[in-house]
Structure formats: C-alpha cells, structure tokens
C-alpha cells in the first residue's frame, strides 16, 4: 500500500497538470498544505469567462502534524513543556526522550490536548487562508475532514470564517460540498453565503445533527437562488421539518433539477420522501407549468394586481401589449415580467417558454358548478376599485358586461352612478357597438331580413337613448328637476338596461347551440320580444303620458313581433310541407325496401337450392367411393386367404417329403 508521501505526490502532480487537487481516504500534513498555498500565491488562478481554474477536494481526510522527522526531539531533556515559542507553534504529538529510541514518555494529557488544540488552530488557519484566496477556486469539497485522531469535524469557527470569506468574491464558486458540525447554527452566515455566491450550481450539505438546523431559514436562503441546480444532503437522515422545507423550496425555485436524499429512518417520513422524489422526476419546466401557470394562480395574481393598482401586471395577464406593436411578444413579455411577483421574475425564461398559456381565460367559470365567469368576477372587482384602466383592459380583452349572475345583478347600472370617469366612456362605446359585434349570434338571423333589420333598429334606438341618459346623468340635480327629467330618471336607467338585456338574451337564446333558426328558435325569440313589449307598455310615463324610450320601444317591438309572427308561420308551413313530403316518401321507401328484401330472399333461396344440389352430388360421390372401398377390401382379403391356403398345402407336402426321405 503506498505511503502518505506517495499519495500526496500523485495528487500534487495531478494538481499541477489540471488545477484539481484531490485527496480521499488518506491524511494531509501541514507542510503539504503550505506547499499548495505557496503554489497558489505563485501561480494566481487565471479567470476565463469569470470561471476560476482550481478545484480543491478533500474527502475522509485526516489532518495530521508534520512528518515524524519534524516531530522528534533529540538530546538530554529533563523537563519539557509545550507552548508558544517565538511566535511559532511546536507541532508535536510524541516526544521521544533519551538516547534509546524506544525509551520515551508521553506528555501529560492536559498539556498534550492543549498542544493539539493549538496545532488544530494553526492547521485551520492555513486551510482557511488557502481556500480564501481571491477568485481561486470554482469547486471546494470538505467532506468528513477531521484533525488528527479527533472524531469531530473542523471547528465551528473555521466554517463560519470560511463562509464569510467566500462571500468576498462571489460569482466564482460553482461547486461547494461540506460536512457541517452539529454545533454549526449560525444561519445568518449561511444565508449570506448563498445570497452572495449566486453562481453556485452544485451544493452538498451534510449535517452531523439534523435537528439543530433551522430548516425554514435554510429554505429561505435557497428559494431565490438563480443558478442552483443540484442539492445533496449525503447520508443525512432528514426530519419532518426538512421535508416540509424542501417541498416548499421546490414550489419557489424552479432552477433546481435534482435533490439527492437518503431514505428516512422513520416509516412515517416515507410518504413525504416519495412525494418529493416523484416531483423531482419531472423537469423544472414541467413542474413550473403544472404548479405556477394555472388559471387559479393567474386569477390570484390578477386580483392582487387589481388591489395594488398594478395595471401593467394586469394587462400582462390579459395578454395585452401596452408597448409598440413592432415589439415581439417574447420581448414584451420579458419586459413585463418585471411587474410580476418575485417568483415569476426569477423564472422569466419559464414564463417566456409558456407565454401562450400565460393568459387568463375570461370566459371560464370562476368555480365549478357556477355560471359566474372569471371576466365578470374581475369586472366586479375593477368596478369596486373604480379602476378605469383595468375596466378598459377587461372590456378590450372580451369580458362580457351583459353577463348574468346567479343573483341577477348587472354591472351596467354603475354606468349612471357617480362622477364622470374614463371607463364610462369606454363602456358606452362597448354597449353602442354594432349589433353584430355586440351579439355575434345575431348573424344566424341574417336570412330573415326584416326581423334582422328591426332588431338593428331597436338597438340603434337604445344607443341613441343611452347617449341622452349619459348627458342627463351629468346635469346638475336642479336642471334635471326643472326639466322634469328627475321624476323618472332612475326608472329610465333600469328600463333601458332591461330592454337591452331582453334584446341580447332573446337573440342568444334563439341561436343557442343550433346550426340554423327553425320554428322553435323563432318562437323563443318571440317570447323575449313579448317581454320587451310588456315592459315597455307597463313602464311609467310622464304627466303627458309620454316616454321617449318606451313609446318607441313599443312601436318597434310591435312591428318586430309582427315580422316574427310571419316568420314563425312561414317556418311552420315549411316544416309541415317537409314533414308531409317525408311522409309521402315513406310508402315508396317501404315498398323499395320490401322489394330489396324479397330479392334478397329469392337470391338466398336460389343459393340454397344450388347448395343442396352440390351437397347431394357430393354425398352420392362419397357413397360410391365407400362402396368401391368395400369391394377393394373384400377382394384383397379373398386374395390373401387363397394365398395362405396354398402356402399351407405346400408346407405340408414339404414336411411329408422330408419325413420319408431315405
């Protein structure tokens, strides 16, 4: 087995050639450590693309005092004490006394222990200086490194100083592996280390005592790390707090690709262990899409953006660009990510990857089993916040102002309340759209020219009256009073709203899930027109018995009802004629089917007769073959019998001749 010097020389040669110093399952002396430090100072590490050149790996390594030749004291010694001399620590483990090589005494236990402690201090200081060289190491591994024959790892002070020193030159260290002692509890130092070393990609943390770790603090330190991909806890058996922290960490950091875990020692922890392992089987992108790009998450973000007045974030969730049209969707999305919560800002690349999924579905029900849509819910919240920009964004994105909810509330009423606002102008523009744009289903009524035309006339009348309502809403109260408008102003707003709803609902109900308008669909429209007429006739009039809104609605509605009646009659006649034609076609079709059936029966009968003849011929042929076979067998048997008799006769004659032979 090679000695320590040979092992070190091999590692040293590799270090000079590749920049990687690696020792495992062996020992390292102070002189050897000093040799590495002198080399680093003499050969500063070159930086290429901000990546250091050197790596330092120690695994299961014992730090021991220098070689035996440096440890032996010679000469006549009557008294010896170990301590600090001329600023130099005497590195002694064994003191050999006398001229006889085998005659020696050991130091007193207290003195020896003090000496080892001082030596460990020197060793740790040298190792600390080596690893703290500016921009020297892109990988550091200190796994199970102990001093001399002590069973504990390096001291807590060493690790605290190491982590502090490594934050002085961040963006260089890529791989870091360390076994921390149970006494290491300075979470602030560890948090600062991760915050500064943002270039870290691979991390291994092994703990001597897992219960002493503040897991929430560790998770908080890692949740926003921008480049961390791999985490290992070695053979550390994690507790329940650790599994909870790691589960939350995976919900916040989607750069992490893998976490290496030892199986838990308690059966109760197997479930969270398996859940964590199964989640890690998916890629970062898959986990991000499944967990963060969901309608529930987007709705929550939109609600928070409304509460904060964050229009940029809100517009982003509606997939509306506020910048120049020339900018690409990806570039705009990357810029807009700055307005999203921290989780999405930290994963802008994932947001860009799933840009097409990163938008709210305003027509989707807010909750399963209810009719209220996402768009209507957000409109309600935007109206409550009096957020003009968000209301406009929602309307432009396709939120339906005319949507009905379970409690029959509408948002249009708020149009006439309060002070003048930019969103009201936008809502008026939305409501005064061409009927084909406001209610696309009306296109199915296009073949019925007169009905379609009267529907448009009613819509134009409502548009004109809405303009007057908005003008009167801005009048001072006394002006509305002296003109007589004030007496029925509130009623007219409700009546206008109800008339528009009847018109829109009637069109949508008649065309609901039907490829074309039939008698039943036209009758559905008729029922809604009757409601519109009923409301217009029962509406309160002024003292002169007039109502500009309702009188015109009554006139137009009556004309429309007449046209709808005529269309119903025409459709009914068409359907009756079609039904009669089909009924006349039935006997002929039955006769045709009966003829086809008779023909098939005849063909089957002919086929059966032909089959019977063939079968009879085959049976006759088989009968003849059987008779022929029987004759052949009989003839063969007869021939064999005759031949046998002749053979017996010949045999007897031969025997007689043999008996009488002279």
Give an overview in words.
The chain is α/β, with parallel strands linked by helices and 662 residues long. 57% of the residues lie in helices and 8% in strands. A seven-stranded parallel beta sheet has the order 1-2-5-6-7-8-9. α6 runs parallel beside α7, α7 packs parallel to α8 and α22 runs antiparallel to α23. The termini are far apart.
The largest beta-sheet arranges its strands as: 1-2-5-6-7-8-9
Count of alpha/pi helices: 24
User: Percentage of helical residues?
Assistant: 55-70%
Structural class based on helices, strands and sheet pairing: alpha/beta
Poorly predicted spans: 68-107, 322-327, 654-662
User: What's the quaternary structure here?
Assistant: single chain
Strand-residue proportion: 5-15%
Number of strands: 9
On the 0 to 100 scale, the average pLDDT is: 78
End-to-end separation? 109 Å
Largest sheet: 7 strands, parallel
* Spatial shape: flat
The whole-angstrom Rg is 49 Å
Layout of SSEs?
Layout: H1 4-18, E1 20-29, H2 30-42, E2 54-64, H3 68-71, E3 84-85, E4 88-89, H4 109-131, E5 137-147, H5 156-166, E6 175-180, H6 187-196, E7 202-207, H7 215-222, E8 230-232, H8 240-252, E9 258-260, H9 270-280, H10 284-292, H11 295-308, H12 311-317, H13 329-336, H14 342-345, H15 348-353, H16 374-385, H17 388-397, H18 422-431, H19 435-438, H20 449-473, H21 477-482, H22 489-510, H23 519-538, H24 548-659
Parallel strand pairs: 1-2, 2-5, 5-6, 6-7, 7-8, 8-9
Antiparallel strand pairs: 3-4
């Amino acid at each position: 087995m090679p000695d320590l010097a040979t092992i070190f020389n091999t590692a040293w040669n590799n270090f000079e050639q590749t920049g990687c110093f690696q020792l495992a399952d062996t020992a390292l002396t102070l002189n050897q450590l000093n040799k590495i430090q002198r080399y680093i100072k003499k050969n500063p590490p070159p930086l290429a693309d901000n990546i250091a050149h050197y790596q330092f790996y120690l695994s299961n390594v014992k730090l021991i005092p220098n070689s035996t030749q440096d440890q032996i004291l010679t000469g006549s010694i009557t008294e010896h004490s170990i301590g600090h001399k001329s600023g130099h620590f005497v590195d002694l483990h064994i003191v050999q006394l006398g001229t006889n090589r085998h005659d020696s005494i050991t130091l007193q236990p207290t003195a020896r222990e003090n000496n080892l402690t001082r030596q460990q201090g020197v060793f740790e200081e040298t190792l600390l200086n080596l690893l703290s060289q500016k921009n020297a190491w892109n990988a550091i591994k200190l796994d199970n490194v102990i001093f001399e024959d002590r069973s504990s790892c390096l001291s807590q002070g060493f690790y605290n100083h190491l982590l502090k020193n490594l934050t002085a030159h961040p963006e260089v260290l890529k791989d870091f592996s360390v076994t921390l002692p149970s006494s290491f509890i300075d979470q602030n130092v560890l948090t600062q280390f991760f915050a500064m070393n943002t270039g870290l990609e691979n991390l291994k943390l092994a703990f001597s005592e897992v219960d002493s770790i503040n897991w929430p603090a560790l998770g908080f330190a890692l949740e926003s790390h921008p480049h961390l991909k791999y985490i290992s806890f070695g053979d550390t058996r994690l507790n329940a707090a650790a599994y909870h922290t790691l589960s939350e960490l995976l919900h916040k950091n989607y750069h992490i690709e893998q976490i290496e875990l030892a199986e838990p020692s308690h059966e109760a922890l197997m479930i969270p262990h398996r859940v964590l392992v199964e989640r890690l089987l998916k890629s970062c992108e898959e986990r991000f899409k499944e967990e963060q790009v969901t309608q529930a998450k987007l709705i929550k973000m939109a609600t928070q953006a409304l509460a904060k007045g964050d229009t940029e974030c809100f517009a982003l969730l509606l997939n509306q660009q506020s910048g120049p049209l020339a900018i690409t969707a990806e570039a705009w999305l990357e810029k807009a990510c700055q307005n999203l919560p921290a989780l999405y800002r930290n994963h802008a690349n994932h947001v860009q990857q799933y840009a097409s999924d990163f938008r709210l579905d305003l027509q989707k029900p807010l909750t399963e089993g209810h009719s209220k849509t996402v768009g209507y819910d957000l409109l309600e919240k935007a109206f409550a916040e009096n957020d003009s920009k968000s209301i406009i964004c929602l309307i432009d994105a396709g939120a339906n102002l005319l949507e009905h909810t379970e409690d029959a509330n509408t948002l249009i009423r708020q149009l006439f309340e309060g002070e003048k606002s930019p969103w009201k102008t936008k809502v008026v523009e939305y409501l005064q759209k061409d009927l084909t744009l406001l209610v696309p289903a009306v296109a199915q009524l296009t073949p019925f020219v007169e009905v379609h035309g009267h529907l448009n006339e009613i819509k134009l009348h409502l548009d004109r009256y809405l303009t007057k309502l908005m003008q009167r809403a801005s009048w001072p109260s006394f002006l509305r009073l002296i003109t007589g408008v004030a007496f029925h102003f509130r009623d007219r707003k409700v009546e206008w709203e109800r008339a528009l709803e009847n018109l829109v609902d009637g069109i949508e109900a008649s065309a609901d899930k039907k490829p074309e308008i039939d008698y039943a669909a036209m009758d559905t429209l008729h029922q809604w027109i009757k409601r519109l007429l009923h409301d217009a006739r029962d509406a309160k009039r002024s003292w002169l018995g007039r109502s500009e809104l309702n009188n015109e609605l009554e006139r137009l509605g009556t004309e429309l009802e007449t046209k709808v009646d005529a269309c119903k009659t025409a459709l009914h006649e068409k359907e009756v004629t079609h039904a009669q034609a089909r009924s006349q076609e039935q006997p002929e079709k039955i006769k045709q089917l009966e003829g086809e059936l008779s023909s098939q029966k005849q063909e089957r009968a002919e086929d059966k007769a032909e089959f019977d003849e063939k079968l009879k011929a085959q049976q006759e042929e088989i009968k003849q073959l059987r008779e022929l076979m029987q004759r052949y067998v009989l003839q063969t048997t007869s021939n064999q019998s005759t031949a046998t008799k002749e053979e017996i006769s010949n045999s007897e004659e031969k025997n007689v001749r043999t008996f009488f032979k002279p």
